[in-house]
Specification:
Monocarboxylate transporter 2-like; 74% helix; globular; Growth Hormone, Chain: A; Proton-linked_MCT; mainly alpha
Length: 492
């Protein structure tokens, strides 16, 4: 039998089969990764009273945990590339267990910062990045649906953990609760064991030269003879900043993450301050998680439709505007019924955002560049995650009123959504212009916008945007933006 062509040796996504078992494992690990920083806020009031600390001080626990979770992106990507997703997720589960057990013996807030924030955050980072990466290996055509199902783990676990944590707090205190949560987090090790690596087709009859051995990559996208330092540089690929679509996405996501978690951190305390009973206040997180549970896979299904998928970047900007508007609305009313309505709407917006945010990055970068992109994005996003909740807590300490933190978070997210919408229109406009110039035979190719595998930015055909970019008013606005970049000296 003749050897297979070299092109056929590439590992292609399976879009099914064992991939759905992998999605189940990702559902568990992602569920713990995103739900735990929110669910532990139930313990904050008791910890705050025991250590006699301010709202800003207690908010640093979630902030450090989220920041470490995102800052660990490049390290996680490097480990996934070297060892695969399975051992990395198992390691993350062990780290989370250690973090909660050691935190239960803490006698100061600094102890909790280190144990829960740093150790636990890095453990969650290993769970999150490894799960997202292996999904991109198993799925292509059904990737939005697979991502939506996996990301639905967060609301499902939040819906379960919020009332469970309140029950544990009432019966065992926060120290005993942390011991039990640590044992539960060992289930991430079980989830990791399900993540069987994709096996490439073998071609034993064909000899591989030394040069080919150096050039060929394994199933995780890393050279077989590349040292650790080169791998690390690969996963801090600063050339991505030359990609216009990537920079637009990054700025919008930074604005979202600054205001994304502060409302969740203080939602229970906000309800208690209004005179709502503690169990009912904790159930607000469960309501949000329940709505979020259906919003994420629903968003994945919607994003997979023929009309939405080529415009998924616009869909993301709509989700941001919707979420920001919900936070602004929360500052206008009081009472449990009003908070339930807000929580339902917030759950829809939050579910849409997290059902889309990594899908949009995969869509922009393609599966080959996604590990590098997600590592760089997550380490940058740790900055607004680290600053958002403490800034909101400081605002509460200064004003004594929670409504101002909702106004601040809503305004930032709403502005980010508008920015994404306008700048994506500008990006499409420039891509159309660059394509037209290329067709005219001029050497004016877009920089670093050529590797968006299966991405909408390069899939758009002439007139696919339903005429929105061809409107005279829109054209004039986009031309004004282009002129502004030219005048400022930015060749974007």
């Amino acid at each position: 039998m003749a050897p297979a062509p070299e092109a056929e040796l590439v590992v292609r996504p399976l879009d099914g089969g064992w991939g759905w078992v992998v999605v189940l494992g990702a559902f568990i690990s992602i569920g713990f990764s995103y739900a735990l920083p929110k669910a532990i806020t139930v313990f904050f009031h008791e910890i705050q009273e025991e250590f006699t600390i301010s709202y800003s001080d207690i908010a640093w626990i979630s902030s450090i945990m989220l920041a470490a979770m995102y800052a660990g992106g490049p390290v996680s990507s490097l480990l996934v590339t070297t060892y695969g997703s399975r051992p990395v997720v198992i390691l993350g589960g062990v780290m989370c267990w250690v973090s909660m057990v050691t935190a239960s013996f803490g006698n100061s807030i600094i102890h909790l910062y280190i144990c829960i924030g740093v150790i636990g955050g890095f453990g969650l980072s290993f769970n999150l990045n490894a799960s997202l990466t292996i999904i991109s290996k198993y799925f292509l055509a059904k990737r939005p649906l697979a991502n939506g199902i996996a990301m639905a783990g967060s609301p499902v676990f939040l819906c379960l953990l919020a009332p469970l944590n309140q029950y544990l707090l009432s019966n065992f205190g926060w120290r005993g609760s942390f011991l039990i949560l640590g044992a539960m987090l060992l289930n991430c090790c079980v989830a990791g064991s399900l993540m069987r690596p994709v096996t490439p087709p073998r071609n034993p009859s064909k000899a591989v030269s030394q040069k080919k051995l150096e050039e060929q990559t394994d199933v995780y996208g890393t050279s077989l003879k590349r040292n650790c330092m080169k791998n690390f540089r690969k996963f801090l690929d600063f050339s991505l900043f030359k990609d216009r679509g990537f920079v637009i996405y990054l700025i919008g996501s930074l604005m979202f993450f600054f205001g994304a978690y502060a409302p969740i951190v203080f939602l229970t305390a906000y309800a208690v301050k209004q005179g709502i009973e503690e169990y009912s206040a904790a159930y607000l997180l469960s309501i949000m998680g329940f709505v979020d549970m259906f919003a994420r896979p629903g968003t994945g299904l919607l994003a997979n439709t023929k009309w939405i998928r080529p415009r998924v970047q616009y869909f993301l900007s709509f989700a941001m505007v919707f979420t920001g508007s919900c936070h602004l609305m929360c500052s206008l009313g009081t009472g449990y019924v009003f908070l339930v309505v807000y929580t339902v709407l917030f759950g829809i917006g939050f579910g849409m955002m997290f059902g889309l945010i990594f899908e949009c990055l995969m869509d922009l970068m393609g599966s080959q560049r996604f590990p590098s992109a997600v590592g760089l994005v997550t380490i940058i996003e740790c900055c607004p995650m680290l600053l958002g909740p403490p800034a909101a807590g400081a605002l509460v300490d200064i004003t004594g009123d929670y409504k101002y933190l909702f106004i601040m978070c809503g305004s930032v997210i709403l502005t980010g959504g508008v920015f994404l919408f306008v700048m994506n229109m500008y990006n499409y406009h420039m891509l159309d212009k660059e394509r037209a110039m290329k067709e005219m035979g001029q050497n004016h190719e877009p920089k670093d916008n050529h590797d968006q595998e299966n991405g909408t930015m390069m899939q758009l055909k002439e007139g696919q945007e339903s005429g929105i970019l061809h409107s005279p008013t829109v054209r004039r606005c986009l031309q004004s933006i282009e002129n502004a970049f030219y005048i400022s000296g930015l060749k974007w």
